[in-house]
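Pilot study result, target chain (324 residues):
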Amino acid sequence: MKTVLVTGGAGYVGSHCCKAFARAGWTVIVFDNLSRGWREAVKWGPLVEGDIADAAEIGAALERHRPDVVAHFAAYAYVGESVERPEIYYRNNSVGSLVLLEEMRKVGIDKLIFSSTCASYGIPSRTPIDEEHPQAPINPYGWSKFMIERMIEDFAGAYGLSAVMLRYFNAAGCDPDGEIGERHEPETHVIPLAIEAALKQDRTFTVNGTDFDTRDGTAIRDYIHVSDLAQAHVLAAEKLLGERGIHVYNLGTGNGTTVGELVEAVSRLSGSQLRVAYGPPRPGDPPILVAARGKAERELGWFPQQSDIDRIAETALAWYRRQL
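Predicted structure:
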């Protein structure tokens, strides 16, 4: 059987990808220090507790399991926190990834899937955003991911590393089977916050910005169901087994949903009117972030199946209701 070692496999996107790999017949090894992941989300293979920044720990895991592919999700991912504490983002995300790359090279593992982000594009100069759009991050989180992409490209040139770099847009939704879901502490993602406001009468959902140049004045984002993201990683791994090189893909639907439309969908599907407050836009928030997804379709054969906003909200609502 093919083996994938998943760093950060106890986290939101990583755990959903573990399920997709297991369903596709891969042996899954999770490597996670559980600082921001959840032990109970590790269901499709053994958990190796360790830190990617610890060369001995990640090196031993690579040596023992000898994966065909490493899928790298382990990262801090709060934009606001990255502005307040940039050092932990560069240390954990960028330096930790350098340690991983070095240990992969020592062990002789040369295939990597990297969980990147549309935050590396910064404020877009055009939409939809294709993979050739200039990268100009505007926060330490985006810069930390951009730096990892640069390291991967340099390791490819120097040592023959092959990699697929997947730039996510807005990961959303929960496992349709209800086995795992989205859980962050603190929670900053818009759909969980909207659902909390729908299910808990003491919560208020804040809309950040109402004067954007969009159809209802609220920001437009490209929400992609986490299970669709997971399927893209399986396709990326299969591509790496048959084709060397560096490949970059945006993962989004190509369609945008306004925050106002999201609030309406959550209210309608939950049967509960959200209590909504309105605030100023967050610094640096672009009015529209929408992916051009054509390259992933052509080269990976990837087509989102569950990323309609109603389906995203429906699966997320089902998960959160089980947690009450």
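One observation from the pilot: The longest helix spans residues 86-107. A full batch analysis is planned for the follow-on phase.
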